[in-house]
Amino acid sequence: MRPEGEDARTDPVAARKRMVEVQLRSRGIEDERVLDAFASVPRHRFVEPAMRLSAYGDHALPIGEGQTISQPYMVAVMTQALRPKAEDRILEIGTGSGYQAAVLARLVRTVFTVERVPGLARRAQAIFAGLGIDNVIQRTGDGSLGWSRYAPFDGIVVTAGAPRIPESLREQLADGARLVIPVGTGAHQVLRVLERRGDRTVERTGEACTFVPLIGREAWREGSGS
Ligand code: SAH
């Protein structure tokens, strides 16, 4: 018998299939388009070579610059909460490794993504190019202000923890669009999902989560920690 986990080393396709079944479908991710995207994006390409063996594990991993690639399940929860449709234009704040953007790129027409750390933005760009992903548009800067040039968006996902909901992001939602954002004090947050309905927004609270801090004008101040 092969030892448990060996196929993650030798067969990323099998490792992804198992990740989808064991970590995602069995925990309530049921959107088949979302599950297919997770089965096809090569997560191991978004981590350092030394970490490839654990790329499909049920956890976050460091990606350098003190940042992390999120746990597959959390990426899936956020992706499903956006209810992505093929013609959508989605804004992501916090490109990080680029993995979440690559998953979204398989599901929607265009992904706009903003990263504050230039080295991470460059690294993600190289990975997108290497994988032939051509529907992700990137910018380096403070994503707590959104990206007004391309607004409104059909969905906005923030992959860093915010102290409150940035007003700029709320304003950049199209009618019917959703904002998915971890909000909390300190290192722990709760996922919040806002949907714009005309002039109103309706909101629900989702899972507890742990993200690195969102640092910016409408977020945490640099140096204030989380
Ligand atoms: N979505 C990523 C995970 C990102 S970790 C992935 O799939 O790998 C959170 C990222 O948010 C970090 O890279 C951090 O540098 C970035 N970040 C923090 N504050 C930000 C801001 N105001 N604007 C843009 N990016 C920010």
Task: Detail the topology: elements first, then pairings.
Layout: H1 6-10, H2 12-24, H3 32-40, E1 61-64, E2 67-69, H4 72-82, E3 89-93, H5 99-107, E4 110-115, H6 118-130, E5 136-140, E6 153-158, H7 167-171, E7 173-183, E8 189-197, E9 200-209
Bound molecules: S-adenosyl-L-homocysteine.
Describe this structure as you would to a colleague.
This protein has 226 residues and is of the alpha/beta class. The protein has a domain of 150 residues: Rossmann fold. The chain is 29% helix and 26% strand. It is built from seven helices and nine strands. The protein has a seven-stranded mixed beta sheet. Helix 6 links the parallel strand 4 and strand 5. Helix 2 runs antiparallel to helix 3 and helix 3 crosses helix 5. The longest helix has 13 residues. The N and C termini lie far apart (46 Å). The relative contact order is 0.12. Bound molecules: S-adenosyl-L-homocysteine (SAH). S-adenosyl-L-homocysteine binds next to strand 2, helix 5 and strand 4.
Brief overview, please?
This protein is 29% helix and 26% strand.
Looking at this protein, list some descriptive labels:
7-stranded mixed sheet; 226 residues; alpha/beta; 9 strands; Rossmann fold; 26% strand; two-stranded antiparallel ribbon; disordered N terminus; binds S-adenosyl-L-homocysteine
